[in-house]
Amino acid sequence: KPLKSSQGIVANSQICVTAEGTKNLAAEPQESGFLRRNKALQVQANANVPEKVVNYMLWLKKQGYAESTIFNRVKIIKYLAKHANIDDPESIKELIAKKDSWSLGRKEIIVECYSNFLLCVGRTWNPPKYKAIEKLPFIPTESEIDYLIAACGNKTGTFLQLLKETGARCGEAWQLEWTDIDTERNTVRITPEKHSNPRILKISQRLKERLLDLPKNSKYVFGGTNLKTTMRLFERSRKLAAAKSKNPRLNKITFHTLRHWKATMEYHRTKDILHVMRLLGHKNIKNTMRYTQLVDFGEQDYTVKVAWTLEESVKLLEAGFQYVCDHQNAKLFRKPK
Questions:
Q1: Which end of the chain has less neighbouring CB within 10 Å, N or C?
Q2: Among candidates 38, 113, 37, 55, which has minimal Cα distance to 79?
Q3: pLDDT tens-digit profile of 141-172?
């Protein structure tokens, strides 16, 4: 019926919610990202997602895999099912072999994932042999990190500052709750991912103030959106910042880069590998040893600051500067550029 006709107008529409229909959103339990993805995948199962992929996801959950691992592996299997015959290992081999745009590391991950899928369905295969070329992670300068933080919005910039100061994984930082912030001691409590250790880490006064200024509309400090959306916003800001500064190195900075940077700087500052191991939450020191060889600071340039008062000294220490010596009633501090 025509929209303007009297018959086409719905007269019994309800614009507002009734008293019985109102909900206290703060009291409602927050659905985890995994459950949302789980439901979405279940809905798609009747459309374009094979039932075997859904069963694989449920199997991973039963085996106790981390949510991030489940999401990534299901994403890979969905891709394989779409572009090859998921039941034919030779078809999967051919697809992987033809993907010249994939790195050896990427191919190794996909082979491992498909092997895991076959284990789920009670089958085996003769997997192709791909071995990733081991590379040392990219370590930006602190000035590059600070420039990028300043180029992002308040929420994303605060999230980046938290990653920079704590070395936490992005998933760990994203799950930070308001009750995890100790405002008296200036610390945050990190709930671990990937079976690592929990830890309590120091943050600066400036970061604490930025965290407390964020909207408190969820029990999570960074609630109100999801990590994937924030990552896309970050990538957009990073691209603009790299173009504006004419520094393509900024495009190589990821959330995880800040973890590498923090570990490298902490080892340089303390020369204590066990301290770095505890900071990162590692259970195996072999995972920490790589940070002893990332950067040669033998001829490193330093930023030097002078403090005349106790308050100035505290601020410099919180900003990562190291005390060097006294000179004419002042204290000299430095940190690598």
A1: N
A2: 113
A3: 999 999 999 999 999 999 999 999 999 999 99
Residues 6+ apart with CB under 8 A from 212: 181, 183
Edge-to-edge, what's the strand order for the sheet holding 187-190?
Answer: 181-182, 187-190, 199-202
Structure-block tokens of residue 198: 């929990």
Q: Are 216 and 139 in contact (CB under 8 A)?
A: no
Note the residue count of the chain: 337
The encoded tokens of residue 332 equal: 């000299």
pTM, two decimals, is 0.66
Q: How many CB atoms lie within 10 A of CB 332?
A: 17
Sign of CA dihedral 206, 212, 213, 219: positive
Q: Dihedral (C-alpha) 165, 167, 171, 176: value to the nearest 10 degrees?
A: -40
Give the separation between CA 58 and CA 77, rounded to whole angstroms.
13
The four Cα atoms 99, 103, 104, 108 give a dihedral, to 10 degrees, of -80
Amino acid identity, position 169: R
